[in-house]
Each structure stands twice: as structure tokens, then as C-alpha cells.
Amino acid sequence: MKIRTTADLFQDVDTLISMVSSVTGETTAETARALASENASLGSTVWKELKARNIRPYQWSEDLIGFYQGTTAFVFETLVWNRCELKQQMQDRIVQHLRTRFGRPCRVLVYGDGLGFDSAALALAGHDVTYFEVSQKAIQFAKQLFAQLGCSVRMLTHEDLLHEELYDAVVCLDVLEHVPNPVEMVGSLAKSIGNDGYLLIHAPFWYLAPSVATHLASNRRFSGNITRIYKPNGLRAIDGALFWDPIALVKNDSKVRPKLMDRFKLAIGGCLLSVGRYWSTPHVILCQMLMKRSRLNWPELDRFVTQSQ
């Protein structure tokens, strides 16, 4: 089977499992079982390993830093997440946003892209893409992914190199809720976009549940709050999905102005998300229902697991 898209790769489980095994060091049979377990319960691999290491969830600590550096659990979690319809829909929104706003190939930085699926999608859409990640396990997988898809993606692994040029867009998905100082990180990202550039972010600060045990409780105060996290960095929102998945921001001196309908949508979404600062139970229940519907059956993986037993 010739692999042209990520959908092709998810169907070609022999190749996919071989790629994952080369990163984790596990046998193909062990890898297949771990992927199947993760597909049945997204986030369970990370949760189990946190509990085994006796690391407190939702809190930043030296132990958590060590966990990030040494674990392979996120490889399984991120792989399954990128196969979910919810993630694919968010990816499609970003591709559509760039097409609508620019109508041409863009220079795009994808910050904290993990296994590289967002960089690959943007490169396949014709953009000039730079991938940035610090996890060595993720980088190892991303190199294989780009090679399999024939993507031309520049790879940066040192943060000092991020501001060598200005980008038309910087994409940062599902990163800020994990870091102890998201305001500072947003400031760093803002330095990488030009006056007419866009910062595209998804950060579910409100989401605290066993399936996302490395989200930090200290960051809940940023949920739906542009004033605390984006305005101090000279940014304003001009577009985005209702639940800010993602939200599009520009610098204050940008000439781009939001349409009336976009302003209304952003305001409503901000109000709904702001409830999550104090009471996120309804948000979590709704999200888990959507995630359950979004996760896809994976018959190719199921057959591989059965045959390897």
C-alpha cells in the first residue's frame, strides 16, 4: 500500500506499528496491544504510568519533568488523538483558515507538534512548514512520518532557533495547558509572527480529568480569558471556532479586524469557557461524550492484535 496521507498510514498498521516500535523499543505485538488499549480508552496509558511512578496528576513537579523526558506513553496517546475526528476537524479548520486569510502557501511554524501530524497536514496542503518539538521520542517518530508521506518539513529542536525568521502563522495545539507559565510561552510565540501574521492556539485549560492527567490545575484561570494570557502579549482575537478549537489571534497593530459574527462567536465561546475556571464538570462530561463519538473503530489494528496472539 502506497502511503500518501495520514489516513493511509492509519490503515497500514504494519508500517505504523513498525514505526512506533522503533521509537518505544517494544515488540510489534506489545505495541499493537498498547495501541488497542489506548484506542479503547484515550489517555489511559499516561494515567497508568503516572500512577505507577506515584506522580501527582494536574501539578507541575520535578517528577513530572522527568516523566516527560523518559516516557513513551505520549506516543500512544498522541497517535490515537490524531486519529480522532475531533482532532481532524480542528486540523481542517486551520488549513481552511490559512486558505481563506492568505490564499497562498504560507510559512508556518508548528510549535510542540509531538509526532508531527499537524506539520504533515499543513505541508501536504502546500505550506512551507517548520516543526518544533523537544521530545526525542516524538522527533524520532516525526522523522519517519515525514519520510513516509514525502513531506518537506524543516525540523527545529532548539528553541534558540525559533526567532530566526517571522512566520505567516504559528500553530500551537494542546501545549499551553501543560506548561507552568503559559503567558510567557505565548509571548515567545508572538515574537515569531509578523505584523500580519496569525497565532492559532488550542488550549483546553478547563479540562482536568484522568484522561488528561498532565494538564495543570493552576492553568484553569486562563480558560476563556483573553485578558490574562493574550492581551499582556500584545495580541487580540479575530477569529476562531466556538470553543476556541482553535482561536486565531493577531498583533494589536495588525490591520486585520474581526467580522461582527466572529466577534459574537468569540464572545459567546469565551463566556462558556470561562465557567470552566470554577466548575468544569459539564465541560468534561460533554467533552468525554464527544470524544467517545469521535474515536473511530480500528479494524486493521484489531486484526493485527488477533494475529499476533
Question: Can you characterise this structure?
Answer:
This protein has 309 residues and is an alpha/beta fold. It folds into two domains: 6-83, no CATH class; 85-292, Vaccinia Virus protein VP39 (Rossmann fold), CATH 3.40.50. Helix content is 49%, strand content 14%. The chain has helices spanning 6-11, 13-24, 28-40, 44-52, 62-70, 73-83, 85-101, 117-124, 136-149, 182-190, 226-229, 260-274, 281-294, 299-308; strands at 107-111, 128-132, 153-156, 167-173, 193-202, 235-240, 247-251. Helix 2 (13-24) packs antiparallel against helix 9, helix 3 packs across helix 6 (73-83) and helix 4 packs antiparallel against helix 6.
Which structural traits does this protein have?
single chain; 309 residues; alpha/beta; Rossmann fold; seven-stranded mixed beta sheet; 14 helices
- CATH topology of the largest domain, by name, is Rossmann fold
Number of domains: 2
Average of the residue pLDDT scores: 94
The percentage helix is 40-55%
**CA radius of gyration:** 19 Å
- Low-confidence residue ranges: none
Decide which structural class fits the backbone: alpha/beta
Distance between the first and last residues' Cα = 24 Å
Estimate the global geometry from the Cα principal axes: globular
**Number of helical elements:** 14
CATH class of the largest domain, named Alpha Beta
- How many beta-strand runs? 7
Order of helices and strands: HHHHHHHEHEHEEHEHEEHHH
**Main pleated-sheet profile:** 7 strands, mixed
The CATH superfamily of the largest domain bears the name: Vaccinia Virus protein VP39
Indicate the CATH architecture of the largest domain: 3-Layer(aba) Sandwich
SS strand fraction: 5-15%
Taking strands numbered 1, 2, ... along the chain, how are they ordered across the largest sheet?
A: 3-2-1-4-5-7-6
